[in-house]
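Convert to structure. Protein one:
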Amino acid sequence: MKKIGLTTLTLLTLAVTATDLRAQTSDGGGGWQSIGQSMFDAARQSGENAVRQNLQNTTSGVDNRINDYRNGLIQREQSATNSWQQEKDGVNNRINSYRDGVSNREQAATDAWKQKKDQLKATRDSANSLLGQW
């Protein structure tokens, strides 16, 4: 990165110097001060550009890390929510299964009791009928 920056600075300085020399020779004025100023301005501008680019790279890297962190949080939150929902559904299914089992056993006991009750009534009625005929 430093080599690229120095190469860019050198090329910019040479280009500005060449342009400035052409302007000085066509002007006819003694302008070594202008050449120095041009070189200084080019170096300053190159430095500002390098700092600006470095700052932009740093801030975009930080922005990328922040976005990655946020996305990771969102994914972990979604995963936790899904896991919680699955556990809740599992518990509800077990509760409903237990209730269905209780209801089925209650219905079976009620049906058995009604059958026994009907048998007992039939036995009583037949006994009464037999005793009534004596």
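Protein two, convert as well:
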Amino acid sequence: MTRREKTAALVAAVLTIVVTLYSAWKLVGTGVLSWHAAQPDFYSMALETAAVWLILFLLFFCAQNSLTAWFWTAVLCAAFCWLHVIFLPVAFAGAYTVYLILAGRWFNRTVLRQNLGLCWDYLLGGALTITVFCLLSLAQLGSIHNLRIWVAASGLCLLVWAGVCLRDFRTGTAGVRLRDFRTAPAADHMRGWLSGAGAPQPSDSPICGRSHPGSSAMLAAILALLLLQAGRMNLAVDFDSIWYGVRSHVMLNSGNSIYENLGTLGVVYTYPKGWEVLGLPLAGLPSYSFSISMNLWMAALTLFAAYETARLCLKHRLALWLPFL
């Protein structure tokens, strides 16, 4: 970057921080959330979030490689979700998200004959799944029970397909495809999130500092805020969460189809939303948080898509600013 570009970036960063802090103060300090900020739980939540951010920052900043950092990050996230009584819903929603990604990857590879990356896999997998659910409903076979059977059966087939592809990769019989996977538009995945430091440190330098401190701080902040939302899902219930958690299996699909006459139930709107249709297999389980956890994974993938979009014209470190902001 030239000196002029660095100056412009610095000014933009300072202005962003000032505007954000002022807006936060007007919202939390004197605005509509001032009552919430006065509650004792608010300070414990803020302290917990700061502690999680610090641990994540040290993990990313001090790890010898990205694989180690992401492994311990996954352990921390699992422990956090377990302590906040949200582990099982997040795990179920995560497994369903993997199913959607695999469905999209299968469609990309076998039908479209191309590899567009993780974000496109998820998008196409979601569209394909919604289409199947709509067709099953059209045939009066679209009960939530039947949709779960479809997801389980097709998911097993997708796992077998993925296993065959992985075996081909390992045996070298699909070397070209493996090379394509590694060089796909979104193939960097999580590797690039920590690669803002440029060349690695000399071998005699301390372990800390192998990753760029700014990249580590921003990535830790992103994950800390996602965990903040996860921690509140089963402990701080709000009306909208309950409404959307129970609407799907009580109103949208209480029989054999999403096209049944709902009458005046849910009179605000009686048409099915695509996101609700996609999350139907998670509806009607022991907790509403199974459905709401889908939103958390969608938020994470949206942030990753923002990063991938910025990566089209920016370096890794600069691209991380978009999901961070």
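The longest helix spans residues 144-171. The radius of gyration is 22 Å.
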